């Protein structure tokens, strides 16, 4: 009976483990398959793609990438995307860290109303409805003819990031603030010398979220640069590759452009994965 119980317990212990690995394997397949298909599709001919050829290319056509750069001037659009994404990331980190610090540490009139408005914006998705008012506002301020308009438009809507920073800041002992004030620090000194250095993990999360959203954005970037094609970002330029000068859909060129567009964001996640997980976990626990 004892041996039978041991075997039964051993099998019972293996079932959850096997189920977990099967579930993880399925999730990995669903996550990686689109990326792998995009890269392999970018090395096929258009006929091979449209006629449903094999998973792997019959012949590897690396010239598709050259054609993508030549037809879409990817050097310019890549530079535009880098400028926009880096600028949005820096602005988001600065504004979210300041907002989160003030909301976590200071009491002022209308704070509860402001927090309620922030919370409502997290659960209500206005989407493209806000694009026209934003564009009209930037046009009234004479900012719609520069790339700065796109940067400002993409920097807004940081309610989630503000709450992440606020939750993390609440987990930092207030005694550190009081000690800094006794030593002669002002409110800005407490922020810059005490809270900001300790908030690096959550700020890394904010930076990653902001960079990803700015780099992958299509609708806002298209609307803000519709009258200025030279200021288009890489994501918008990829869609323009869908049609050639002959108005025929060239999916192999479009997939080549898409492959180029996803490389930077994959590199960012590859090198910042540990900081992302650590910061997100810390923000969740301390919030």
UniProtKB/TrEMBL annotation:
<feature type="transmembrane region" description="Helical">
    <location>
        <begin position="190"/>
        <end position="211"/>
    </location>
</feature>
<dbReference type="GO" id="GO:0005886">
    <property type="term" value="C:plasma membrane"/>
</dbReference>
<dbReference type="Pfam" id="PF00528">
    <property type="entry name" value="BPD_transp_1"/>
</dbReference>
<keyword id="KW-1003">Cell membrane</keyword>
<feature type="transmembrane region" description="Helical">
    <location>
        <begin position="251"/>
        <end position="272"/>
    </location>
</feature>
<keyword id="KW-0812">Transmembrane</keyword>
<feature type="transmembrane region" description="Helical">
    <location>
        <begin position="147"/>
        <end position="169"/>
    </location>
</feature>
<comment type="similarity">
    <text>Belongs to the binding-protein-dependent transport system permease family.</text>
</comment>
<dbReference type="GO" id="GO:0055085">
    <property type="term" value="P:transmembrane transport"/>
</dbReference>
<protein>
    <submittedName>
        <fullName>Sugar ABC transporter permease</fullName>
    </submittedName>
</protein>
<dbReference type="InterPro" id="IPR035906">
    <property type="entry name" value="MetI-like_sf"/>
</dbReference>
<keyword id="KW-1133">Transmembrane helix</keyword>
<feature type="transmembrane region" description="Helical">
    <location>
        <begin position="82"/>
        <end position="103"/>
    </location>
</feature>
<feature type="domain" description="ABC transmembrane type-1">
    <location>
        <begin position="78"/>
        <end position="272"/>
    </location>
</feature>
<dbReference type="InterPro" id="IPR000515">
    <property type="entry name" value="MetI-like"/>
</dbReference>
<keyword id="KW-0472">Membrane</keyword>
<feature type="transmembrane region" description="Helical">
    <location>
        <begin position="115"/>
        <end position="135"/>
    </location>
</feature>
<keyword id="KW-0813">Transport</keyword>
<feature type="transmembrane region" description="Helical">
    <location>
        <begin position="21"/>
        <end position="40"/>
    </location>
</feature>
């Amino acid at each position: 009976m004892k041996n039978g119980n041991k075997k039964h317990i051993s099998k019972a212990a293996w079932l959850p483990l096997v189920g977990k690995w099967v579930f993880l394997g399925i999730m990995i397949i669903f996550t990686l398959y689109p990326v792998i298909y995009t890269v392999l599709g970018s090395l096929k001919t258009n006929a091979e793609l449209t006629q449903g050829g094999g998973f792997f290319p019959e012949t590897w056509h690396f010239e598709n990438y050259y054609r993508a750069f030549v037809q879409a001037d990817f050097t310019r659009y890549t530079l535009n995307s880098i400028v926009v994404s880096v600028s949005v990331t820096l602005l988001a980190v600065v504004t979210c860290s300041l907002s989160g610090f003030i909301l976590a540490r200071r009491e002022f009139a209308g704070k509860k109303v402001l927090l309620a408005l922030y919370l409502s914006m997290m659960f209500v998705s206005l989407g493209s409805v806000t694009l026209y008012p934003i564009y009209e506002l930037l046009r009234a301020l004479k900012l719609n003819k520069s790339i700065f308009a796109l940067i400002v438009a993409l920097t807004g809507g940081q309610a989630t990031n503000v709450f992440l920073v606020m939750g993390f800041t609440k987990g930092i002992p207030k005694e550190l603030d009081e000690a800094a004030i006794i030593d002669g620090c002002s409110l800005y000194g407490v922020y810059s010398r005490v809270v900001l250095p300790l908030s690096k993990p959550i700020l890394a999360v904010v930076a990653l979220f902001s960079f990803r959203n700015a780099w992958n954005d299509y609708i806002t970037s298209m609307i803000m640069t519709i009258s200025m094609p030279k200021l288009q970002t890489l994501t918008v330029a990829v869609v323009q590759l869908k049609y050639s000068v002959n108005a025929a859909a060239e999916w192999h060129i479009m997939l080549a452009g898409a492959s180029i567009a996803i490389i930077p964001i994959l590199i960012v996640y590859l090198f910042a994965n540990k900081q992302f997980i650590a910061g997100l976990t810390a923000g969740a626990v301390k919030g």
